[in-house]
Amino acid sequence: RILILDFGSQVTQLIARRVREAGVFSEVVPYDVGTGFIRDYARDGSLRGIVLSGGPNSVTEGDTPRVPQIVFELGVPVLGICYGMQAMAEQLGGRVENGKVREFGYAEVRASNHTRLLEGIADSVLADGSSLLKVWMSHGDKVTGMPPGFKVMLSNEACPIAGMADETRKFYAVQFHPEVTHTLQGRAIINRFVHEICGCQSDWNMPDYVSEAVEAIRRKVGKDDVILGLSGGVDSSVAAALIHRAIGDQLTCVFVDHGLLRLNEGKMVMDMFARNLGVKVIHVDATEQFMGKLAGVTDPEEKRKIIGREFVEVFQTEAAKVSNAKWLAQGTIYPDVIESAGKGKKGQTIKSHHNVGGLPDTLNLQLLEPLRELFKDEVRELGLALGLPREMVYRHPFPGPGLGVRILGEVKKEYADLLRKADAIFIEELWNTPSGLLSEKGEPLSWYDVTSQAFAVFLPVRSVGVMGDGRTYEYVVALRAVQTQDFMTAQWAHLPHELLGKVSNRIINEVRGINRVVYDISGKPPATIEWE
Ligand code: XMP
């Protein structure tokens, strides 16, 4: 396995991800975990290499993070990245200076000398046989003098020592970030490091991760009880399944039904968790409480605040009943961690997103976040490895305030009931209609698979229609389907007209109270994905 020491870079987890993609188990720990931890970690011989991440500090200042000396004494290969390179240089007897020019973004570096790390890895080869790499740089400081035993591995004009190597000790360091996809050969470099330099086999996989994670949870919580807010979404579901695998009945889930869930969602969650998996789930039907508080409220932000506040209240009341709970588990995943790290710098609140994330302070519980290191697709894979059904694991995201932000203006139970039915028809047809595309494994993908999020929106306006011989005066439903990588920007999905036609027919025929269906063709920006 590979140990990654984190010096605070925003992209440290990407290193872990690349190592795992190479089929090798890796773990991220803070740079100051302590010598004892690292020694114990290395004791059974399974530690094959250490990566030092980037970080925001400068080694030219005295009180900034340093690499625990033991890292250089274990006899395992070490790869320093950015700050990790600078710290390695400084601590082993080289020199680092404050760069006058910051290098940020794409850069080209030239591989000088042949090293085992880079041999044969190139974006292009120059006439003199040396190779060029297109890499992603982000640094102010640079190494200006190498420690004894090192040779230059990479250079460019701005940074004559952009990479260095001591091949005898297998210490390598690069100023750029091989873990980001902008560095085209980054994967190849990390693969080379873990497989050939460290000698790791590609034998890490999700089932292994399950056992590691189960062990880690057991170690952490011991005999304590844990509570978790189960929403029916992918992240909290996978977290629940994993924690239950680890500690069984020490876990209690609280599932709050605010009356704004999708069709049959409550039943589905209870069937899967309580019945099939045998998880203890407290199911609270708080529909009346939520509807009561939402009555007469039309302002979107106000609605979000009410839903958030009521949710916290209901959850806390239920959680307090689990008297010996010491831990609050959450399905926080790595992108949430990055997003909240950036908070406060972004300025204006566009929408107050409410997640279970806002809960814990008053409960006096410690946080248990077993998915904190994983990306969404890894969480999905983990869910499958834990035996959750594919339809659940590949579900589109659903916002915390649920249908509350999909019923425009005042929320009423009557509207929610109509919307649930229309939405279920739309989703069913998306699942059932092949998109004509194939997955990487060659399996046919449905329109549900190739859209990132799709749902129906209830418009509380009535329009005139005709049904049989009679005139109707009923509500409108809008369909929304988007494609996006990161949900920050999105394109409306070009669904086939036949599919849209079928969904419209079915909704108007099957949902009494809806006589008109429209399709939303707005991108984000300027529209958002949800309508409120
Ligand atoms: P917008 O509407 O801002 O949505 O383009 C971007 C993504 O965030 C989801 N979303 C939420 N998720 N709590 C959540 O957990 C919320 O309050 C919330 N509001 C929006 C939305 O569904 C989309 O995936």
TrEMBL record:
Every GMPS ATP-PPase domain range: 204-395
Reactions catalysed, as given in the entry: XMP + L-glutamine + ATP + H2O = GMP + L-glutamate + AMP + diphosphate + 2 H(+)
Role of this protein: Catalyzes the synthesis of GMP from XMP.
Key words of the record: ATP-binding, Glutamine amidotransferase, GMP biosynthesis, Ligase, Nucleotide-binding, Purine biosynthesis
PROSITE patterns, sorted: GATASE_TYPE_1, GMPS_ATP_PPASE
Source species taxonomy: Bacteria, Pseudomonadati, Pseudomonadota, Betaproteobacteria, Burkholderiales
MF (Gene Ontology): GMP synthase (glutamine-hydrolyzing) activity
EC number from the UniProt entry: 6.3.5.2
Pfam families assigned: GATase, GMP_synt_C, NAD_synthase
NCBIfam families given in the database record: guaA_Cterm (TIGR00884), guaA_Nterm (TIGR00888), PRK00074.1 (NF000848)
Residue positions of the active site: C82 (nucleophile), H177, E179
Protein source organism: Oxalobacter aliiformigenes
Protein name as catalogued: GMP synthase [glutamine-hydrolyzing]
Assembly and oligomerization: Homodimer.
Name of the gene this protein is made from: guaA
